[in-house]
Structure formats: C-alpha cells, structure tokens
Amino acid sequence: MDINKILEQSMSLEHQIFIKYGLVSHPTEEDIAKWYYRTQANIADCMEPEQASRKAAFDVFDIDPRILRKSQADTIEALLLKAKQLVERNSNND
Q1: How far apart are CA 90 and CA 16, in angstroms?
Q2: Higher-confidence residue: 74 or 53?
Q3: 34 and 60 in contact (C-beta within 8 Å)?
Q4: Cβ neighbours of residue 9 under 8 Å, at least 6 residues apart?
C-alpha cells in the first residue's frame, strides 16, 4: 500500500473518531452526522464539548470499552469542525 494513502487515511475524520472512542469499526458518514448532531444537542444542554461528544459516541457508535488506542488525535473542537464540514458538504449534495 502507498505510504501517502496510509498517512491520508490516518488523518481522516473516520479514523480519528475510530481511534478516539475505541470503536469496533470505522464509522460511516451517516454515523458521523448522527454523532455530530447528538453532540451539538448535548452541548446545547450545557455539557462541555468533550463530555458531550463522548456521550454522543456511546449513543451512536459500537464501542468496545476494553479497546484503548493511543494517538495524536485532533482536539474535540477540531473533530467537530471536520464533522460539521462533512455534514454541510453532504447536505449540499442532496
């Protein structure tokens, strides 16, 4: 496999969410949109972004709490921005 493709994949939103929350499999764009909207609703309910996104992750994704992955993942604010861009891009394509 091409090293550039591997690096690109490791920087993808799907992979970063997979790593951050210990997902069993990589999320779909639809799942990421659900996670984004659920996180925004939790933030509107006065949760801190990190707590809001973690709660949303457990609600939306299949997570194995025994999985612990270490990475240099983006901050939650950066992940939410990427998710927002994905949601907006997909809504413009509809």
Answers
A1: 19
A2: 53
A3: yes
A4: 15
Backbone angles phi, psi at 73, to 5 degrees: -65, 155
What pairs with residue 23 in β-bridges?
63
Q: Which domain holds residue 41?
A: 15-92
User: Rounded to whole angstroms, how far apart are CA atoms 51 and 45?
Assistant: 11
Assigned token pair, 42: 């939790």
Number of compact structural domains in the chain: 1
The angle subtended at Cα 91 by Cα 85 and Cα 94, nearest 5°, is: 145
- For residue 42, the model assigns a pLDDT of 98
For the chain, first and last CA: distance in Å?
A: 33
